Structures are given as C-alpha cells and as structure tokens.
Amino acid sequence: MTGQILPGARSDGSAWSVGAVGGAVAPGCGSSGGVRCVGGGVGGIGASPVRPDGALKVRGEFAFSSDLWADDMLWGATLRSPHPSATIRGIDVGAALAVPGVYAVLTADDVPGDRHYGLEVADQPVLAVDEVCYRGEPVAIVAADHPETARRAAERIVVDYGVREPVTDPEVALAGGRLVRHVPIRKGDPAAVAEVVVTGEYRVGMQDQAFLGPESGLAVPAPDGGVELYVATQWLHADQRQVAAALGLPVELVRLSLAGVGGAFGAREDLSMQVHASLLALRTGRPVKMVYGREESFVGHVHRHPAILRYEHGATRDGELVYVRARILLDGGAYTSTTPAVVANAASLGVGPYRVPNVTVDAYGVHTNNPPCGAMRGFGAVQACFGYESQMDRLAEAVGLDPVEVRVRNALAEGGSMPTGQVVEGPAPVARLLELVRDRPAPPPVGDDPRQLPGGVANTTAPEQVVRGVGYAIGIKNVCFSEGFDDHATARVRLELIGGEPTALVHTAAAEVGQGLVTVQAQIARTELGVERVVVATADTSVGSAGSSSASRQTYMTGGAVRAACRAVRAALLARLAGGSGAGADDGGVADDGGAVGDGGVVGDGGTVGDGGGRVAGGGLELAGGVIRDAAGRTLGTLVDLLAAGPVERSVRWRHRPTRPLDPVTGQGDAHVQYAFAAHRATVDVDPELGLVRVVEIATAQDVGRAINPQAVLGQIQGGTAQGLGLALMEELQVVDGVIRNPSFTDYLIPTILDVPPMAVDVLELADPHAPYGLRGVGEPPTISATPAIVAAIRAATGLPLARVPVRPEHLTGTG
Amino acid sequence: MRIDCVVNGEPRRADDVWAGESLLHVLRERLGLPGAKNACEQGECGSCTVYLDGKPVCACLVPAGQARGREVVTVEGLGDGDLHPVQRAFIAAGAVQCGFCTPGLIVAVHDLLARTPSPAEEEIREALAGNLCRCTGYEKILTAVRLAAGREHES
After folding, report:
1. Which one of A392, A515, A611, B70 is least enclosed by Cβ atoms within 10 Å?
2. Is a pLDDT exceeding 90 seen at residue A13?
3. Rounded to whole angstroms, how far apart are CA atoms A695 and A686?
4. CB contact under 8 A, A48 and B146
C-alpha cells in the first residue's frame, strides 16, 4: 500500500496493485475526494481527489477549443496542397474573394512577420512559400461567415502547381543527403565479438496521436493591435513565441489562454491553426474560429516517426549481452519539428534498460515528402523498444532461456551505466518489474463465448482453432527535456482570505490535456499550505512558461514549481509570524529558483523537508488545518490571523538539475534528467486462419517514484498501454507516394472497448532522490513496452517472425 | 430553412439553417448546446451521441431537417439540476480524462442502463463499442458503468 516516502529515502516496500477484473481502485481513490493523504491535508498528495473539471466535463459544459463562440465571429478554413511535392507558380484568390460571405483570403504574401516557424528549427512555412513539400501543407486561408462558405471559397482558389517527383523513401532521402540529424553512440569496443549473435530488421509504421478533440480555437483581435488566442495546445509560450514572430508583433501583444484540450499525446506541440486564425482575425478585425474536421486533423498535425531498425546483438552462451550494434532510420517527413530530439532519444535509449558493455548505435532522422513527424507519446523510445525487445526474444531463443530470464540477466540496475556513459542514479527496478508481471496469475483459458474469441460476435472463430501466446517486454524512457536544454516551469501561488477562509490560488501556464494536472497542482498546494480551498487558475501567458505538457515532465516540472512557490509562501508567512518583513510587502515576490540548489532543483528553503505535509520551515513548525504549531504542539498563530494583514503571493521559476549535450562523435554525456521504466506481459488469443488477434489481458508493472494521484497514475498507465496496443495491432497511417490513404476513424483504427482487455497494474513507488516528492514521470513508459509485448505474444502463439508493427491479418495468414 | 424541435424538454427554433447542416451543427452552433462533441463527424466515434425521440443517435449523421418536430435530449439535459448517477459515477471512477468522449459515453451508458440495469461485462463492452476514448484505455469507463449500475440498483 502507499507508504510514506521521504524524498531522498528509498522505500522498497512500497507497491500497490489493481487486479485485472472488477472495479478495484487504487489506494486513496475516493468518490468524494475526502481522503486524508499521506503528507497531510484533505485531498493532498497521495490522494485521488475529484478532478476540478470533472463535473463540467460530464455535463457537457466544459469549454473545449472547438466550443468557443464570440459575437460577430467568422469561420476560418484552410486550402491545403494536393501534392506531396510541387512548386507554386501562382495563386489566384479572385474567385474565392468573390464568394458572398467571404471576408478575407490570405496567402504567404500576407504573413507580416517570419514566414516560417518551428519548435527547434523555423523551417515550416506558415503558408506555402513558392513550393509545397507534403500533401496537406497549408497554402491559403479564408475567413467567411459560415464554415461551409469558407470551405467552398477555399476550393475556388486556383493554385498553379509545378508537380515534382516526391522523395518518400527514407533510405533514398538519407543517401541523397536529406539528413536532419545523425546521433552516434559509441561505448566500449566497436569490434567486440560474441559466442551468440542474433540479428534482425524491424519496421514501425506511422502512428497517429488521434486525439478526439480536433485542432481548433478562437482568435480575437484586441484594441491594442494585438490578438487574444484561445487554443488547445501543449505549450502556450512556445505557441506565443512562434505566433508573435509570424505576426510580426511583440510577444506581449499575443496573449494566449488555454481552451479545453481534447487530448494531445504530442500532436499539439507544433502549431496548427494558431497563426492562421490570428492572421484572419487581425485582417478582418473580427473574431475568427477555426475547427479542423477529422480528415484535416489527420494531415494537420505531426505523427509518430516511422522507423527502420537494424539490430545485431552479441551475447555469451549464458545470454549475457556482450555488444549491441544498431542502425535506426526515422522518417521525419517534410519539416524538422522535433525530429532532432526524437533521433537523440532513439539513439540514447536504443539498447533498452540493459547492461551492455559495447555499444555502437547510429540513429538518423531524414527529410522526405511524407507528412511531417514529430512528438508522440514515447518519442523515439517506442520505435527503439520494438527493435531491442524483439531482439531480446530472439536472443532468449538462441541461448535457450526464458524471455524473462534473459532480460533479468541483463537488467540495468541502480548505479548502472547507459550507453551514453550516464550513470543511472536512483532506483532502476528493471528486474523486479519483469518479475512482477511474470508472477501475475495467468488469465483464464479460452472459452466458447464468441464475444471472447478473436472473431467476436461475427462468430467466425471456432474455439478449437484458437492458439494462445504470452509475451513480455520492458522499456525505458527519459523524463523532462534533455541534452542541456534550459528546462524550467513557473508557478505563482497566492494565499489569501476569501470569505474569511484561507484560499490558495495557483496560477501556471501548464497545459491540462486530460492527464489531471489541474488536480495535481491543487493537491500539492493543499499539502504544502495545509489549506483545503485551492483554485487553479486558467493557464495563460500572463504567467511565466511552464514548458510543454510532454516528455512525462509536467507533474515533475510544474509540480516542482508549485511546490517551490508554496514553500516560498510558507516562508513569507513564517516571517510574518516572527514579525519580520513588512506584511504589506508580501504581495508579489518573484524568485528564480533555478540555481538555489544546483543538484536536484530542490527549493533552497533549507528547513523544509520531504513531503512537508504543511511543515512551515525549520524549527519543527507545522501548518495544518490553518493553524501553525511548534514542535510541542503549541499554537503560534492561525492562517486567518496572519492573512488578515493581506495576501501573500510568490512566483517561482523552477528547474530540474542540469543535463548536458551528447558528444557529437561518441554520443557520451549525461543527457537525461530521469529514467522511467515499465514492463508488460501480454496474453493473446490468435485465430491463425483469419489472422485475427484478441488481446486477452495485459499486465503492467511500473515504478512511478511517488504516486501523487494514484487514480490518475492508473489512468495514464491504462490509457498509455491501450495506445501501445493500437500500434501493435491496428494503428497505421497508410502513406502511399506521400499521400495518407486512411485519414478517418473509419480507416485509421484506434482501439475500441472491445479491443482493450482487462489491464492488471502493479505500481512501485521507489523514490527518486532528485525529484519532487520522489516522483517519476508516468505518461509515456506504458506506451513503449505494450507494443513489443503483444507482438511477442503473437509470435509465441504462431511461431511467425513478425518484424513489423502494426501486425496485420495478412501477416498472420501468410497472404500479405 | 427553419427547424423547430424540442430540445431537453423545451421548444427550440433555429432559422437560416443550411440544407447540409447536421443536427450536431445546429445544436452546437445555433442552439448553444456544445455538449455533444465534434470528434469525427462521420459516425465513427460516438462523441456526438444524443437521444432523438428516445433513441441514441450520432447527431453528426442526422441532417438537421430530420429533427424537425422531434424530441432531442443532449447530455446537457440528463441531469435534473443535480448530476445524474451516471455522471457522478464517471467522475468518481476516474473515467474522465480529457473529457471529449465523455458526453457521448454518458448518453450511451444512460441508454444502456435504462435498457439493461445490471449489464454483464460483455454487454457493457458491446454496448459501448461505438464510443471511442483515446485517454483511458476504457478500464475506468467499465468501472464507472458498474458503479452507476450498482447505485441504480440500490435506489
């Protein structure tokens, strides 16, 4: 059960689990939210209080970015390239402008500022400039008084294209010098030899994030010449910077607020309609709303990089790894997006969570005329994991070991060294996670209810032809931004009396994308300040950047910032109690906490310890229930009294401990902040005649360091696992000659409730001494190893090699 | 064209509706009821599920004209001032993450439990097979349905 874990203290005993069947809930999950948590306070950390946005969401009253409305608003639409590669010889917008109800038609010539944008490299045109480089690239935009009018007008724009032969094969692109980034990793002896050698080439198809809420938002022109933008995004300040540059405006005139986000999974890191709606709003002087349809969404955001992975593993006859050599080729599509960082992840995590003395990895990202690829949950680690885990199964077979045993024998552990030379500090329970999923009871054998057979209610599967298989996999993921990036998050916390009750207002720019960050922010404030009433303000750009809701980093980073800001508020309260600094001055302190304590990013208020649970500062003072007591339990003051002199507000910019770049030749360097691990066991039933697979059960074991919100942790693990299942069995954008052939939920299949099996989960809470509360990023690891575990199970059932995901029916029937 | 229909128990009118507009568009953009969601607008995801004359439909597939003179109930009309037990169960079980699929699922589960007050696991799965969720992996949605079913039994 959830034990109390002090940061810096390792707590091996802390584990909890939920079964595969039934309505089991995690500890601390209460329907009322009235759970007293470890660390103090109702609804504090370790509890699972009700989401503050839950009631609005179940009523249908939560305002998603596509639900916004303004008086007098217009609708925007986008004309996109029908060609993967073409020059633009001319654009005639006359016919579109002539359509009644049309207010503006804009092309690249109407972009007043930078005509290109990008997260890492500004190489993607706001609107096509003289050429198009992928099918679906925005060429022109229209504002009209009805969405259908806007769409029809866009169709009347005449573009004179000079069609070119697209480059769609990443190998051709690499040979042709279209390299985005090459990351080599060199460790040990590059010429090492081994008794047992297994090789393989693996492929990963192009997966889509397929969030349900389409790209959308509302841009409102402001009287000062700027724009107010209400959008669904993962990183408000990255959007702000890019939008302002494109509009040719100072950033302070581009103000963003987070509208309701209907899922993200990486697809909202890059801009979509943000600049377009702003351009149209500024041109027409009216609010402009843009909402993509599903087909447009499929071409309107980046995807997971498809990959070709070649591996050679050398080992002793006992199955101990001697070397790994790998070449990983990632198709970045037309523009750079986050490809450089994806390549670095694939390279640096490319051998998995294993001890390997000799490593030679080369990972490449290239430009093609395929759809642009960038961030998706797992971010380079997903592709590599399918390669190295497929290899570990081949190795197990070659040396005659059980798949779990060969992994355990090579498992990375605390203090072990990565191929980059980075030492893994803090718990790395690789072997234990594998043993946890292995030791789970097996699911019941196949029955004869057709609903539980691969053919489902279509009743096509005869029970006697079903074969069952079990497969295992484990993955590794870096948490937070890497390679020396200055990664920080800011939180502003204000404590004041509202209606006579102490109330904390937490304000950050961190994007709630469904993961539950708003809940977590409030939990941290309750724990740190000992108050029950916490209001989390709408995320916007009037407070400092929180960084992106990606890289499994936001609870770590914004959670760390909220904790630091709360502790600064506590310190100010204590000073007020001591009659120190003038109370009236406590209304706006801003501190950059980045260098306070270099290692670990721990806020530098020395007396504050651990989970804190409302401890105010040194001297054993405790803040609970609005009362400050000393170590002897004597009441020294109340929050109500202290706050009567006015509110206390502190803003803190918080950083994790620094990372370093990878050496460009050897790939050596302490590039990552934290490593996270999850293991899966998949059990599948296969109908080999029809090529159908039913996943019977997936068991997951994951170390989360500290479960700040156990219910949300389970939500991340189960949801992430389902996305890994999707990549294993069904999810692939079919790109032929640069054209996505299946841009719809009819043809791009994501798992339904019939496809996702019961998911047993074991959660370990082994504190990371460097992280706030010891927590470890949760969101991505479960997506990474689910895919290879399921494919391993299908291989076990069928004996087929299956070197490509997703596995299609024809791969099982031998007809494809 | 003009559409008159009853929405959540009240007579509503929409004017200047285009022939090509769906019931979903009219609800969301003309009647101020954005609860039904626009995730795919091709009948695949179930996020726009509403009742039309008591039967759950994908509002995106219903031409607005077909709603004329009929009764529509959206997610906004399910609670009776307070949250409906299905809505409460979704919150309590952690079945809500981003929430975009939630309104459609609430209507679908509301319909399921009206027909089958205590559905078995496989019945729940079949009934909700038309509602996509990308966040939860469905486990907590199953928990929510069980929770809602149990509560309705007790009452």
Report:
1. B70
2. no
3. 9
4. no
Ramachandran angles phi, psi of A725, nearest 5°: -60, -40
Which residue type does A778 have?
Answer: V
**pLDDT band at residue A702, thresholds of 50, 70 and 90?**
very high
ipTM above 0.90? yes
| Contact between A715 and B136 using a beta-carbon 8 Å cutoff | yes
Contact B135 A54 (CB under 8 A): no
- Across the interface, whether the CB atoms of A723 and B134 are under 8 A apart is answered yes
Chain A residues touching B37 at Cβ < 8 A: 64, 66, 212-213, 262
* pLDDT at res. A592: 54
Give this prediction's pTM: 0.94
pLDDT band at A591 (very low <50, low <70, confident <90, very high): low
**What confidence tier does A66 reach under pLDDT thresholds 50, 70, 90?**
very high
A633 plus A755 within the same structural domain: no
Residues A589 and A535 in one domain: yes
Enter the tokens of residue A215: 């790209």
CA A28/CA B89 separation, integer angstroms: 17
Say whether A59 and B100 touch across the interface (CB within 8 A): no
Residue A619 is predicted with a pLDDT of: 56
Distance from CA of A452 to the nearest CA of B (A): 8
Which class is B3-77 in CATH? alpha beta
* Domain assignment present for A207: no
Whether residue A682 sits in one domain with residue A602: no
A637 close to A741: Cβ distance less than 8 angstroms: no
Q: What CA–CA distance (Å, rounded) separates B35 from B102? A: 9
Q: What angle do CA B90, B94, B95 make, to 5 degrees?
A: 50
Instruction: Answer whether residue A680 is part of any domain.
Output: yes
Kindly report, residue by residue over A421-461, the tens digit of the pLDDT: 999 999 999 999 999 999 999 999 988 888 899 988 888 89
pLDDT surpasses 90 at A623: no
Task: Tell me, yes or no, whether A173 lies in a domain.
Answer: no
Question: In this structure, are residues A696 and A754 in contact, taking their beta carbons and an 8 Å threshold?
Answer: no
CATH number at A703 reads 3.30.365.10
Please tell me whether residues A496 and A471 are part of one structural domain.
no
Q: Where are the domains of chain B?
A: 3-77, 85-148
Last residue of a domain, one of A255, A277, A300: A300
CATH number at residue A77: 3.90.1170.50
CATH of the structural domain B85-148, one choice from 2.60.120.10, 3.40.50.150, 1.10.10.10, 1.10.150.120: 1.10.150.120
Q: Domain check: are A397 and A442 in the same one?
A: yes
Res A5 pLDDT > 70: no
CA distance A565 to A378: 30
Average pLDDT over residues A351-356: 98
Mutation for testing the B interface, residue in A29, A51, A57, A783 having most B CBs under 10 Å: A57
Do A295 and A370 lie in one domain? The reply is: no
Range of the domain at A385: 307-482+663-813
Does one domain contain both A636 and A582?
yes
pLDDT (0 to 100) of residue A17: 80
Task: Please give the tally of structural domains in chain A.
Answer: 3
Confidence band of A626 (pLDDT split at 50, 70, 90): confident
Residue A484 makes CB contacts below 8 A (sequence gap 6+) with A658, A659, A660, A661, A671
Contact call for A753 and B103, based on CB within 8 A? no
Nearest to A536 by CA among A556, A555, A553, A522: A522
* Cα–Cα distance, A124 to A362 (Å, whole number): 26
| pLDDT at A551 > cutoff 50 | yes
If one compares B153 and A648, the residue with the highest pLDDT of the two is A648
Which of A282, A300, A318 is at the close of a domain? A300
Longest dimension (CA), chain A: 82
Tell me what the pLDDT averaged over chain A comes to: 91
